[in-house]
Amino acid sequence: MAQYIYATATRHCCSPRVHPAIPLQVPAPLAPPSSRPLRVSPLRRRWAMGASDRLKVADARPRHAGPCAATMLGEPLPASDDHGLVHPSADFSAQALVSSPQQYQEMYQRSIDDPAGFWSEIAETFYWKQKWSPDEVCTENLDVTKGPIKIEWFKGGKTNICYNAVDRHVEAGDGEKIAMYWEGNEPDQDGKLTYSALLDKVCQLANYLKSVGVGKGDAVVIYLPMLMELPIAMLACARIGAVHSVVFAGFSADALAQRITDCKPKVVITCNAVKRGPKLIPLKDIVDASLVQSAKNGVSVGICLTYENQLAMKKENTRWITGTDVWWQDVVPNFPTRCDMEWVDAEDPLFLLYTSGSTGKPKGVLHTTGGYMVYTASTFKHAFDYKPTDIYWCTADCGWITGHSYVTYGPLLNGAIVLLYEGAPNYPNPGRCWDIVDKYGVTIFYTAPTLVRSLMRDGSEYVDQYSRKSLRVLGSVGEPINPTAWRWFYNVVGNSRCPISDTWWQTETGGFMITPLPGAWPQKPGSATFPFFGVQPVIVDEKGREMEGECSGYLCIKKSWPGAFRTLFGDKDRYETTYFKPFSGYYFSGDGCRRDKDGYHWLTGRVDDVINVSGHRIGTAEVESALVSHPKCAEAAVVGIDHEVKGQGIYAFVTLVDGIPYSDDLRKSLVMTVRSQIGAFAAPDKIHWAPGLPKTRSGKIMRRILRKIASRQLDELGDTSTLADPGVVDQLITLSDT
């Protein structure tokens, strides 16, 4: 990690920009929901009886024309209008941190006109051992033609994110407040930690890591499931200035070895095994295989710290390598529960997180400490309208950026109560999520559109068995949520009373970039709405010219923001080429975006997921959204295939609602739905019936596999080890000609 350095840069942050107007409709009042009845969860009652070149952009156009219909919170959304406005209730807005479009406009404009002052005021609410220079709050250069790319925030300031996320709350008298609830794979498995207990465990692990030679700037790879030990390990690294690299515990040994070889950690932290649903996954065996591979690549790791996850596998059943392997429970509890802080510069590295790259080699996204701390805390607080009494559940794994920013750091920096869940969302049945919501009284529920569509497919009866009265804010992350899934999430899960924070952001951005603020303005189902404070999104054409008003194009960001990543580890050239060379002076997101006449932003998918059909550039997300609007379609994934006449054709994998049989008439009906919503040029050339889609355990659809199946390149399917259900690939191949 010592090779992490910055090139020189020049420019200070400033540049006012007027934000497009937000509709100023006044929400209608809504009576408060009835008090939550006390009852025994159906799932727990049942369980008690059992055993314990330049990319192209989508020419995305509105799916519907005409004015937007206003829809008040509490009333069902009109089924025929994708653009119906959904207002927060007057009661919700009255208590919201940002309660009106006018208040947002004032705050947003200040964040653009005076970013140094705006972000400094927020930064000062955290503890800094040493303040940054007020003249150098932000220094940036986003233009490759003017020198190396550089982004710095609060440089010279000394702080520690672990102190601000844990110690600060204990010292403020909140040590006995719950920091984390943990729900295990089985419904009768649970646990909890107060902030004081969390601090003790973080310090013990931090002291152990120091004892084996881990210090500031050293890398530590963490390969753990969603046990409380995962965020504990992240915080312990941050406490001593080590750089953690969490690898999703669903990656194969090859993928893990790639990451180990790249960052050269001193220690790997894992557990012996985990159960996800009924399936046992021997994580330690995967780590062993990866360490053999990385050693062949010249990188040897001296210590593999292994947590005994007794609910999945006992010690005696675990394969062991003497001299390398160390049991967590044998050493960590023996260390003191106090550990001195390593005060680090705001621009010192905090973590590495590897994300997929188009070349096949993972990109090591590097985030630093100060700006990331300020930005994730602020985005969490405002996008979810956080209150100290909230109980917050994000279903993401800490192996992804969402788990870093909105399971660990963002919530804990706000002193929140966080719920971690180790199991599968549909185990032992599709009601598990709502059982957990009722058990803990979850108030904020943040999940992925993929899970929403999966649960929607299982039927509303699983939702209706549970109260869910505690919920007050819902959230969506990971990909654009289509209006049909949005409506179901809002009407069924939220009982037509919970605003949805449909967030757009990326691993590289560190935190939310475009997101609703729940009490501030009306929402449109499927739109990420407006930018967060300090974020200046622009839509440009293929020549990099900014477009105003209603338009479609490439989504870029003008000016830096505190949470931005600083480089790709060990590959500065790739960093600049991928993100800053396509459009000089901007961060290029790689996403297509449409801005409607009201200024709302609609993400149309990755621009490299655009299909060029006879000169028409069609975003896959647009076609998928149209297909899922069909009442018999539960989920869809669209890829492009070669077409001898049109250049590319549209190939759609379609999962039907349970109980609906395959038929040619239904296939024609689905095609007609796309034709009517987008146009004849977007009609799928092939509808491929899909009992399920190939997804990772985190819910990400593996489109690479779908492209190979669609192109009949079955000998090039590649690694399927990270799929939640590898058997679905064989099912799709079998149905290729159905």
From TrEMBL:
<dbReference type="GO" id="GO:0016207">
    <property type="term" value="F:4-coumarate-CoA ligase activity"/>
</dbReference>
<keyword id="KW-0547">Nucleotide-binding</keyword>
<dbReference type="GO" id="GO:0019427">
    <property type="term" value="P:acetyl-CoA biosynthetic process from acetate"/>
</dbReference>
<dbReference type="GO" id="GO:0106290">
    <property type="term" value="F:trans-cinnamate-CoA ligase activity"/>
</dbReference>
<dbReference type="InterPro" id="IPR032387">
    <property type="entry name" value="ACAS_N"/>
</dbReference>
<dbReference type="InterPro" id="IPR000873">
    <property type="entry name" value="AMP-dep_synth/lig_dom"/>
</dbReference>
<dbReference type="GO" id="GO:0016208">
    <property type="term" value="F:AMP binding"/>
</dbReference>
<dbReference type="GO" id="GO:0009698">
    <property type="term" value="P:phenylpropanoid metabolic process"/>
</dbReference>
<dbReference type="Pfam" id="PF00501">
    <property type="entry name" value="AMP-binding"/>
</dbReference>
<dbReference type="InterPro" id="IPR045851">
    <property type="entry name" value="AMP-bd_C_sf"/>
</dbReference>
<comment type="similarity">
    <text>Belongs to the ATP-dependent AMP-binding enzyme family.</text>
</comment>
<dbReference type="InterPro" id="IPR011904">
    <property type="entry name" value="Ac_CoA_lig"/>
</dbReference>
<feature type="domain" description="AMP-binding enzyme C-terminal">
    <location>
        <begin position="622"/>
        <end position="700"/>
    </location>
</feature>
<feature type="domain" description="AMP-dependent synthetase/ligase">
    <location>
        <begin position="172"/>
        <end position="560"/>
    </location>
</feature>
<dbReference type="GO" id="GO:0006085">
    <property type="term" value="P:acetyl-CoA biosynthetic process"/>
</dbReference>
<keyword id="KW-0436">Ligase</keyword>
<dbReference type="Pfam" id="PF13193">
    <property type="entry name" value="AMP-binding_C"/>
</dbReference>
<protein>
    <recommendedName>
        <fullName>Acetyl-coenzyme A synthetase</fullName>
        <ecNumber>6.2.1.1</ecNumber>
    </recommendedName>
</protein>
<keyword id="KW-0067">ATP-binding</keyword>
<feature type="domain" description="Acetyl-coenzyme A synthetase N-terminal">
    <location>
        <begin position="104"/>
        <end position="165"/>
    </location>
</feature>
<dbReference type="GO" id="GO:0003987">
    <property type="term" value="F:acetate-CoA ligase activity"/>
</dbReference>
<keyword id="KW-0460">Magnesium</keyword>
<dbReference type="InterPro" id="IPR020845">
    <property type="entry name" value="AMP-binding_CS"/>
</dbReference>
<dbReference type="Pfam" id="PF16177">
    <property type="entry name" value="ACAS_N"/>
</dbReference>
<dbReference type="InterPro" id="IPR025110">
    <property type="entry name" value="AMP-bd_C"/>
</dbReference>
<dbReference type="InterPro" id="IPR042099">
    <property type="entry name" value="ANL_N_sf"/>
</dbReference>
<dbReference type="GO" id="GO:0005524">
    <property type="term" value="F:ATP binding"/>
</dbReference>
